Backbone:
């Protein structure tokens, strides 16, 4: 079976502030080689989609200012495959644009939408899951989200409760649930009915456009005005630069997924982590003999365990008597902070902005 | 009274490894502006001697490779005032060369010899003490060392026990004592008879040469061979480059002061610290509201007290949950270490050498 109508949208506009200062405004998380493998999270996201979607059907949606980084990291892409958002809006405007863009290229398209900054460890299972997902959304008018089999009562993720089964591993969605507290998360995991909301979606271009028209009519009225421009790169960009900044800031989950009634979840188990926190990075990464995660930097440690170091490759860190800390260094900023305090990093970033403006952001 | 025969020798060849990595082999401790005042320790040493010794009589003895740093930091000096040691030997060869050099310029000279990397806080008392010292060594054949009134039972310093008084504040030296243990140090301080050995010396050029001939004849036989070259810069440097590396590695204390019988101590109290450790730097430095020493770097701290930060001026450090640590950053090296472990820093430096050679030293 041909995959020429299959498209991938990689959302690549995030600013990665939870990994500040290792992730900086001018080189956020998705562009960083977190595991010292030589490939950034974006490149890893691209690599794992290549067996499923033709290279020329991969679309990167990013902020205008990150477009040079995308071109640097994915030089094999054509300029036309990079959609440059003139402003940061949430996922709904991003997906609406990408859908209009792809519809103009191929009205029969089906699409996988994926973040650029997650980690997936079992790529063969990933490929199988995505192929199954494409087959499903090609067969019926549906919006499919990927639900990850939970391995722990994580309070940092949203959960999806599954309803009636449709196939072996695809069910109707019963409810979407925001981040639960610890006790509720335990109940969720034990029930077997709840899956982590991965933020990976599949649908035909028709299905998502229909759903957007129905559930986000104000947003789509903007894109309707640009209908004639899609498929004509210059006109399209002119339209986007003029109209996109006026779009509502809203997530696709809130705008569509939680409202539509043709929403399905494919239950998958391919070693997923949204890499949303330093602790998540620590848990995902190989440890050295001292249980430190040193990534690709040089660390000499004494009586120091459970730390995660994120430092530029040629830098040497010598550390003594430090347990369970984040040590992140990025040229002109150094952060030293207990892993247990990582939720406060965004407060630190605010204090830094108050004191020094954008200099260190 | 004229001071035209008064000279100052500033010893400036140390490598400052105890402050690694803030002090690096290519820019050791004495060249660093530790207090963010705009003047390095060397420049502060120079500034405080200017009221006592004519500028053109100040001699800096340094390692050949640090001569450019000396010229950069003290541009008002003539090239001829910088003596470039071709190899690191201890203080006795350094002082012997400086004495021969000065004797050729002025056989009536009297000399103060001082380290370049100590801190003195009460400069008016310093000037008074040094003037008194010069008057003493001008009046009799004597080797005068400065003893600092101890303020705590410090175990990191050598002590001088005073003997028979000669003037108000100058006594014969009874004994030199190496670093004592805690209990002995307490006894020393309580006795009132013991003073810290500052490493600052005064003598006439005749007295020190005579003493060197008597107590370090092997060393002086080297300099005897160069006698004709002193006072002729090119010949002198040619001689030094050839012969100095063969000199014995020995301190002036061990070679002369502990052996001679015309050794005196002037008891002084001018706020001295040899700045030998991070803790000493912490103790000497102004603290912010969180009891952190942040010097001239930018620090935002949360639940963090008693730390000393040594980081390049434009760098921002954000730290949480860290008490009584050293945080020292120097471009390609970061050290994080409890202040209480600072004696281990030299072991860390050894490990770094074993792993990476001189790259990070």
Residues:
């Amino acid at each position: 079976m041909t995959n020429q109508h299959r498209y991938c949208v990689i959302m690549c506009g995030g600013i990665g502030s939870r990994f500040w200062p290792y992730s900086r405004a001018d080189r956020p998380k998705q562009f960083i080689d977190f595991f010292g493998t030589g490939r950034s999270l974006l490149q890893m996201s691209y690599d794992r989609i290549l067996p499923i979607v033709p290279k020329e059907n991969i679309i990167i949606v990013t902020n205008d200012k990150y477009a040079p980084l995308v071109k640097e990291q994915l030089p094999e892409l054509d300029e036309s495959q990079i959609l440059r958002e003139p402003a940061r809006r949430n996922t709904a405007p991003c997906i609406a644009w990408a859908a209009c863009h792809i519809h103009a290229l191929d009205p029969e398209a089906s699409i996988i939408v994926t973040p650029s900054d997650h980690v997936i460890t079992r790529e063969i299972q990933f490929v199988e899951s995505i192929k199954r997902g494409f087959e499903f959304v090609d067969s019926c008018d549906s919006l499919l989200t990927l639900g990850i089999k939970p391995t722990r009562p994580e309070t940092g993720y949203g959960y999806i409760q599954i309803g009636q089964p449709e196939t072996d591993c695809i069910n109707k969605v019963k409810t979407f649930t925001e981040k639960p507290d610890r006790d509720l998360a335990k109940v969720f995991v034990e029930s077997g009915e709840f899956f982590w909301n991965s933020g990976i979606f599949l649908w035909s271009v028709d299905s998502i456009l229909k759903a957007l028209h129905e559930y986000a009519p104000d947003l789509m009225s903007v894109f309707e005005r640009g209908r004639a421009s899609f498929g004509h790169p210059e006109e399209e960009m002119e339209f986007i630069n003029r109209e996109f900044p006026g779009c509502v800031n809203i997530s696709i989950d809130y705008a569509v997924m939680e409202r539509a009634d043709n929403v399905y979840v494919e239950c998958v188990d391919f070693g997923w982590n949204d890499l949303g926190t330093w602790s998540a990075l620590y848990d995902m990464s190989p440890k050295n003999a001292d249980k430190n995660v040193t990534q690709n930097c040089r660390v000499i440690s004494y009586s120091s365990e459970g730390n995660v170091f994120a430092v530029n490759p040629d830098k040497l860190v010598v550390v003594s008597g430090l347990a369970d800390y984040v040590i992140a260094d990025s040229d002109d900023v150094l952060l030293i902070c207990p892993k247990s305090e990582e939720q406060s990093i965004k407060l630190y970033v605010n204090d830094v902005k108050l004191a020094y403006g954008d200099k260190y952001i």
Q: What stands out?
A: Chain A has a mean pLDDT of 94. The first strand of chain A starts at residue 6 and ends at 11. The CA atoms of residues 97 and 223 of chain A lie 7 Å apart.
